[in-house]
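On clarity, I found the account of how folds are encoded harder to follow than it need be. Since the whole study asks how a given chain folds, the encoding of that fold should be made plain. The format is easy to grasp once an entry is in front of the reader. For illustration, here is how one protein appears when written out as sequence plus structure tokens.
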Amino acid sequence: MKLTLGFSPCPNDTFIFDALVNKKIDTGDLEFDVVLDDVQTLNEWALEGRLDISKISFGALTGILSGYILLNAGGALGKGAGPLLITNYDLKNTETVDDMLVAVPGKNTTAHILFSMAFPRVKQKKFMVFSDIEDAILNGEVDAGVIIHENRFTYEQKGLKKIMDLGEFWEQQTGFPIPLGGIVMRRSFDEPLRRHVDELIKQSLSYAYNKYPQISDYVREHAQEMEETVMRQHIDLYVNNYSLELGNDGRAAIQKFLSVLETSTGKQVQTHDIFSYAN
């Protein structure tokens, strides 16, 4: 049986899925047709129902629940791992952000939801691929930007300055780990198959951990020109126990995130029948 599988080329995702998609573990009669793209593209494809299994931002989850259900393994949650709001200016206070043009990595991303939660009055937003945001700030295309992934480790080297750690803001407001992204699978597949895929993702991640801190060629290939130390920082920050299993804390954090989303948008959010199974 062949399943389509989408995830990002970022080191945390390629680290998790390397053994699975490159047959370093036994996947039995399952094969995976892999698509690598940025998470906002994957969000949009999930809204269209294009893939069998996909990484998505939790900000996009409510729009796809009719067709997809959340798996327990492969996701990104944690503390100290949230997006940062940065600029090229020396700001005296955060109130000036309200009048800025701010680059955001996709309308449906968790980064956008957290930014809107912290700065609800900002009206001027430019949605961009996350990897273009630093340069857009440096070139003066935007006044500030929300950065994610490896840009957390490189922005200071380019002379850019942090306005706010949006993940820290979330943690202070809620006390929960930050739900960044998860793995969803079509609801049309039965539970035994979903459990099997979950188990394979866990095995794939365990394989990678057993080799770590060695970085595989697959991770290097898709990290482009990223330094190996940055790859490890990326993996250390975004891959953790929640990636193996959401657990009760992870599920509670996602429920809290959806309730905050409901409050901020004024739209009713489905908060039941989200998870494939409890354990």
About this structure: The domain at 84-174 is CATH 3.40.190.10 (D-Maltodextrin-Binding Protein; domain 2).
